[in-house]
């Protein structure tokens, strides 16, 4: 293990720390792993690669540890698991590179990354959180791949590019290796450009409200409920001057019994934190029409370790806003692609989402919700306490955005709606499942090839490539 190898690993880890799971510099993941992968392809000993990759992978989880470590200490164990997965993926690519054409190694790194992101999302209480593909949310042409393959398609692109660049550094004249990563990226860019040229649905005016002074207050001080309701009733009345079709109040902001009279032609979606029998609680989004609360939605997905006492919901809520089919969800629900596909299959063109973030993760968690919109063809109106108030169209473009504050906050914008019903919402995770099959096939082939080469390794005086260690 040379100083150069160590420097490559530290550089890769630093770039991953800035790009992966932190939000604003996600595009860095397209190059962040390149120094480490180059060192891995050239290193003579596998255990050296394992150590370097684990260190780089652990550094790359700095974002989640910074965001959530003070609130959810389990995130440190999750970060170590993520680093272990990254280490195994780098070793897998190295093994393929030493025994097969370089193009196979490039694709192997990408399909293993995609497969493990998908499999983890199936069993994790955090859904698709930690998926590499979210890093590409601000590269809007590539983001459109989510309408075909979901976030697994984005994870594939985010992995195949650095793998291809690493092989390009080592074997600059390997045409098949160049094709293996450049063709998928070019195809994604062409498709993305075509998608972005498509006309949007009709625009609808949305108002988002917030006031971080009241975030979570009704849980600890139920007697503050009437005062908080009165404060937001004033905000609703003020927002009504802008003529919105819908007004969104953040998650868990109000106590039961809060009542609103929406402005003419408008509805209000407000987050309510309500006690239930047996010491349980309800996380509710209430839909208010001219006659009061006309429907409620119960949050399906809870934050592990913080919302154990809340009763999860089981159904969707679809209504009409401005003549458009509109869905309602709450905060963490947006981390679960399989749940939001149910709205896409019902051709919902707009989602209204009360939310509550952790301040530090505002950009990351808000952008994850935007990906759900691209996957399913709906625009997003998300109002998050201690986070961002965001209006984004069905292609993930930001129409309007601002941070909440310790005081009344209002964001109003004309939001082009989506048309729902994307390829991804219809076929689901077929691409991810194909990646799992490809990964398992390559893994079996690698084990077979290694077994076949092992007996002859000791008799070969001059092997064509270094033997595995």
Automatic annotation (TrEMBL):
<protein>
    <recommendedName>
        <fullName>CN hydrolase domain-containing protein</fullName>
    </recommendedName>
</protein>
<feature type="domain" description="CN hydrolase">
    <location>
        <begin position="204"/>
        <end position="417"/>
    </location>
</feature>
<feature type="transmembrane region" description="Helical">
    <location>
        <begin position="177"/>
        <end position="194"/>
    </location>
</feature>
<keyword id="KW-0808">Transferase</keyword>
<keyword id="KW-0012">Acyltransferase</keyword>
<dbReference type="InterPro" id="IPR003010">
    <property type="entry name" value="C-N_Hydrolase"/>
</dbReference>
<comment type="similarity">
    <text>Belongs to the CN hydrolase family. Apolipoprotein N-acyltransferase subfamily.</text>
</comment>
<feature type="transmembrane region" description="Helical">
    <location>
        <begin position="149"/>
        <end position="170"/>
    </location>
</feature>
<feature type="transmembrane region" description="Helical">
    <location>
        <begin position="100"/>
        <end position="119"/>
    </location>
</feature>
<dbReference type="InterPro" id="IPR036526">
    <property type="entry name" value="C-N_Hydrolase_sf"/>
</dbReference>
<keyword id="KW-1133">Transmembrane helix</keyword>
<dbReference type="InterPro" id="IPR045378">
    <property type="entry name" value="LNT_N"/>
</dbReference>
<feature type="transmembrane region" description="Helical">
    <location>
        <begin position="75"/>
        <end position="94"/>
    </location>
</feature>
<dbReference type="InterPro" id="IPR004563">
    <property type="entry name" value="Apolipo_AcylTrfase"/>
</dbReference>
<keyword id="KW-1003">Cell membrane</keyword>
<keyword id="KW-0472">Membrane</keyword>
<keyword id="KW-0812">Transmembrane</keyword>
<feature type="transmembrane region" description="Helical">
    <location>
        <begin position="47"/>
        <end position="68"/>
    </location>
</feature>
<dbReference type="Pfam" id="PF20154">
    <property type="entry name" value="LNT_N"/>
</dbReference>
